[in-house]
Amino acid sequence: MSVIQSIRDRGTWIIFTIIAVALIAFILQDGVGRGGSAFSNTTTIGEVNGQKLERVAFEEKLAMQEKMYASQGAQRDQLIGSLWNQEVDRLLIEGECAKLGLQVTAKELSEILFSENSPLKQEFTDPATGLFKVEDAKKAFAQIKKSKNADQIKMINQVYIQPILEQAIRNKYSVLLQKSAYVPKWMVEKQAADNNQIASASVVFVPYASIADSTIKVTDNDIAAYVKAHASAYKKEEETRSIAYVSFSAVPSSADSATVLAEVSSKKQDFETTTDNASFLNRVGSDLPFYDGYFSKSRMQQVNKDTLVKIPTGTVYGPYVDGNAYVLAKMVGIKNWPDSAKVRHILIGTVNPQSGQQIRPDSVAKKLADSIKIAVAGGADFNALVQKYSDDGGSKAKGGVYDYFAQGQMVGSFNDFSFDKPVGTKDVVKSEFGYHYTEVLDQKNFAPAYKIAYLSKAIVASGETVTAASTAAASFVASSKSQKDFEQNALKNKLQILNGVDIKKNDFTITGLGKSRETVRWVYDNKVGAISEPTEIGDAYIVAMITSIGEKGTMGVSEAKPLVEGLVRNELKAKQIIASKFKGSSLEDFVKSSGFPAQRVDSLSFASPFVPGVGAEPKVVGAAFNKALIGKTTSAIEGTSGVFAVKPENIGATAVMQDAAALKATLLQAVQSNVYRGFEAIKKAAKITDNRSTFY
Is the pLDDT of residue 131 over 80? Predict the structure, then answer.
């Protein structure tokens, strides 16, 4: 159900009142990025080129995103990161557009609102034709009256107007960058000439793999020298830190498991005899409440469902282990149910599904739903009533129809009505969203369905187990005053020292530890060598020690090593190969000294620097196309996969010539597709202050 649909209890005109108010405010601001903030005196999340990103405004947008993405399982920390990036991009684009005089005018906004891609299209779509009734929308706009609901205005502005404005100005800026792309004629001609050539050569190839890695020692000095020589490729945009840590497990012991098993087993007889399963499960504190509905076998998630469906009605099976819990299963009922149903309905909403706010009193919704029931019984057009009254945007355009959905897919009462009642049944059904006047249109694929009650108790650590782990961790900290103590105590207690690397200031997780924001904060509040107090993370107590600080700028040896060690090793191999296996000056000399044969390679392409049977070797292909070297042998060339000597033999034209016009179009498209690089350059040059770690 859309946000707009959730506020339609007072008629279509309210929607457009809200939009109009937003439009008026926009016009007064005279374009994007020119209005002031209502929260300018509050603490800021950050700044982008002097433009403040206010915490209050950020939190409001974050709350909105949490509601929007709740059903997708989005994590708050993920949303914080993505929203920060969105807001930084927005402020950068607004700043650049202000310099250039780029704006989205009120007229342009209006055109977007009433275009075929309008976010309001669903509200004014003819269900018979699927066409957007623009004139109806404009007429409704002409009937605007003053709105009195500030919250609703704010909601529409945040969900619809602002995203439209931001996307529109971004599109303008992107188009501007794309149109600035240019490929000169000489470049096209040169590229076409090069691409239309092929070459042949003879090569001697000694692969790096011919020397065992174990024979080549790569030192820290080697790593440092390589990074220095390629400094631009190994820069860090922000500070990082690393830790070493030990873990004290607080997972449930065998005694803890036995205790839970005994508790669950003791409830079996009472569970079997009770007639009120819901109350019983609530009273005994089951981790799974009673679901008073049916599931087909295909819809059951339990791994032992083949056994569960054979339980006689009224009896209890178990205890058995399901994940990290002991479970008793009671067969409550079995019936022949369809696996899918087709219904149509008219929802008279009582709450906004996104915000949870009331949109009309329960009594008012019930009265309207009952009136619709009477009207349908009297011959009123169902589809007309859907278009006029339904608050369910998910089915409104289809005449209120939900076409063959699986059982368990809808909210409980609506689901049960759809599957329990015979085809043709019409009545009002109450759900958590309001009142649904519902008609069952069809059902298919009947099969047994099962109502099963589950008494579930998680296997959790006892107080004694948790205390033992926390005490051991505290004792470790008390005796660890230095890095040496930390390492010796770990050895003494047979604890494995693990590492967390590349920890950034705004991280919410540490590799290997999972959610660990508290530890990240501690890491950035302390110095190298500091040892933390025991921190509970998951089912363990963690003691951490800060081992290094990676300053912003060029990577240090420890950070760069995983990235460059292989490259440095190949460089060392190349030196060894050249010194021992490339003696002389001719190809024949290199064959003799290396012990590797000469190989002829044909149809080398300048446009695609691949050597057949070897892979990408641009230096080798480049040498093969050097006309000054035809008939001569190059000195040793350090390639990607080994050391080469190349003797170019022939350079000619391809059988099929590449068209210059087509090439120009391809080159231009490639340049235009890299517009984002221009924006990244702007972002890199911007002065960005990130204060997120202060608040999260």
Answer: no
